[in-house]
User: Fold this.
Amino acid sequence: MDTQGDLWQVTPDLRVRAKNIDAGLVGSRIRLARQRAGLTQGEAAGDVMSTAYISRIEAGQRRASADLLVALANRLGCDPDELLAPDDDVAAREELARVTLELDYADLDVRTGDGPSALVRIDAVLASPDVPHELATKAKYLKAQALESLGDLSGAIKVLEDVVSASHESHLRLRALILLSHCYREEGDLARACEVGDRASAMIDAADLHGSTEGIQLAVTVAAAHYERGDVNYAMRLCARAVESAEALESPTARASAYWNSSIVHERQGNIADALPLAHKAITLLEQTHDASAMARLRSQLGFLQLSMSPPDVDEAMRNFERARAEMDHTTASPIDFGRNELGRARCRLLIGDVEEAERLAEDCFEAVRESSLMLSAQALTVLGQVAASRGDADDAVARFRRALVVLDGMGADREAAQLWFELANLLRSHGAMEDAIEAFQRAGTSTGLTSPSMAVRTT
Assistant:
């Protein structure tokens, strides 16, 4: 086929085939190509023909001329030969087109936060015995993304391990490794998160992809795992390089990922002044991607940053938490996302003295995440203890704090856990529960890498 620039042109051979091929067959192929392109009949028709006419062509009631076929092919981004191919293996080609379209819709579901819809589409594709290997592997990767978005980390990990071992396509395997490292980190298995990250890093090195979207996403994912393990300086260097590389890219997703994760590392270092502008940059970039789920998570993160300021910017934090909650209503956010947002709103309500609403939100958070996140469960119990303390019920406050200690004891040692151990230690000490406070101080030290069997704690 001759082309001029990127446009297909009419040839004598194409005119002959357009006159002789079955109109119904061509119509069904045009319909599949249009659906794959995500266009309505009116959008595909443009100013070339009427919507009614393209409808009749798709129904096989009108034969499209060679000129119309080429015009449609150019609008739909397909090859006219695809529309005029002989009838051999038509069923196989149409099934392939159908599966590809279903996966495109599943990908859109994942990106817009509709995990359950994505899973229905993907499972239907995987149930077909004739799906090509690479399309099946892509379907499994999308399934892992959907499971992760719904908070099913163990399910996502199981599927991702299968993708990594089965995929013959290096970029898909790399993306699977990056998501696998993230899932292990979220599950608290920091050693596995770093090990998987190292495997992905070797692929990045071999393909010289350090400045690519995948390279940046891997860098910030591995940085977060190393930070939680206590290797703060290495994590900071990884984030700094990721931000530097992201500045040279056009990809809003890669740049937002770099800014977002760097913001988290700065915030946990106590550098709120550096963390806030990075979070604002990430939000501005994510608004270009229309990723509702990511936007909601980042707005909640920004709310926590604003609560970490001295003094806390409670009004702005509450606005961000409320906006994030409204965005979550239009997606299928995970229980962890909902729980984290409820925890932030509970802290805001506690700071302005609305203890009844703070208690309700903290209880809702605890019930939502008690089976999926030990950290959020312990944080919710800590807020409930503070609610009790604000009412003057010291015994109930200490009981809540002690329960948070029990929950936290099930977690591994990382910096976030250390921070909560330290916070609980101070709360228990302020309420006279000195033995519990000393134990909590010791656990805080262990979580940050201190190995001394005891810590000196002032009791007066």
The domain at 3-88 is CATH 1.10.260.40 (434 Repressor (Amino-terminal Domain)). Residues 403 and 411 are 14 Å apart (CA to CA). Residues 1-6, 450-460 have pLDDT under 50 and may be disordered. The radius of gyration is 27 Å.
